[in-house]
Write a structure and sequence with these properties.
Number of helices: 2
Shape: elongated
Structural class: alpha+beta
Distance between the termini: 26 Å
C-alpha cells in the first residue's frame, strides 16, 4: 500500500477525487486510462523535525489555551508538497495554469 509519505506520494483525480498510487502498482495511471480523467494532483507529505528544546515543557497547570501555564498550541508536524500532473502526457502542469492555481 503506497501512501503520501512514500517517495512518489499519492495521486488524487481532479475529476472524481479517486485516490491512487504512482509507484509500482500505478493505480492512478490505470484509472486515467479507464476513465479518461488525465489530471491528478500529486500529494507528498514530509515530516518536519521539531526544534530541539533546551528544557522540557512546563507541566499543564490550567485548562486554558494560549495562556502561561496552560495548553500550548500545536506546531505543524508535516510539510505538504503538491503538484498537478497530466497522467497521459506524463508532465507537470505549470502552477500558473488556471486549473493548477485552484489546487494550491
Amino acid at each position: 500500500f503506497d501512501s503520501w509519505d512514500g517517495p512518489h506520494g499519492i495521486d488524487v483525480c481532479l475529476t472524481c477525487y479517486n485516490g491512487g498510487c504512482r509507484g509500482s502498482l500505478a493505480h492512478s495511471t490505470t484509472h486515467a486510462a479507464l476513465s479518461g480523467h488525465p489530471l491528478v494532483v500529486n500529494i507528498k507529505r514530509h515530516a518536519i523535525s521539531p526544534p530541539p528544546q533546551a528544557e522540557p515543557p512546563p507541566k499543564l497547570s490550567k485548562v486554558a489555551i494560549g495562556v502561561e501555564g496552560g495548553m500550548q498550541l500545536q506546531v505543524d508536524e508535516y510539510d505538504f508538497e503538491t503538484c498537478v500532473r497530466c497522467t497521459v502526457c506524463g508532465i507537470d502542469v505549470h502552477p500558473s495554469h488556471p486549473e493548477a492555481a485552484a489546487v494550491r
